[in-house]
Amino acid sequence: MAKDNDPSDEEIQRELRAQQKFSMASAIGRAGSGLMKGASPVSRQEQASIELTQWIDQQTSDPSGALKSILRRQVRGNQLLIEGHLQHPHRALSEIIETIKASDYALREFVRQVDVRWGEMYQERPLFQRTGQPPDPADVYTYESVRQELNLLLEKLQGVR
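and the corresponding structure tokens:
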């Protein structure tokens, strides 16, 4: 068969479009058909959030998972901060942890959220540490144990930068 008799792809496309009824959606689709070539459909901000949540899962020693869960929630809730650190997202996580540790109130609130999450996960009544009182011996998440875990994470983050 001679190549001259074969219609080109361009001619076929033109003929098909001529037979189709016009719609705005198909026109937009044709106009933007090459926009995503080589680009990820996941935004850089979302990629940074995913990277941080995976890092939290890998680096946090938290057998029950409640601390990891609340820390991941903090990451997802601080998208503006992450957007400001797209080149170095671990810096955003450092800032989140520093903010938690910055005041006794912020740390107590963070520990309360972790305790609540633990209670939800295990369908048990959480053990809340009261300010100025020693923690319950069965309490996994005390102010001091959470502070130590956050300090450990900060040390690990310094190695990532």
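(Above: one complete record from the training split.) The mean pLDDT is 87.
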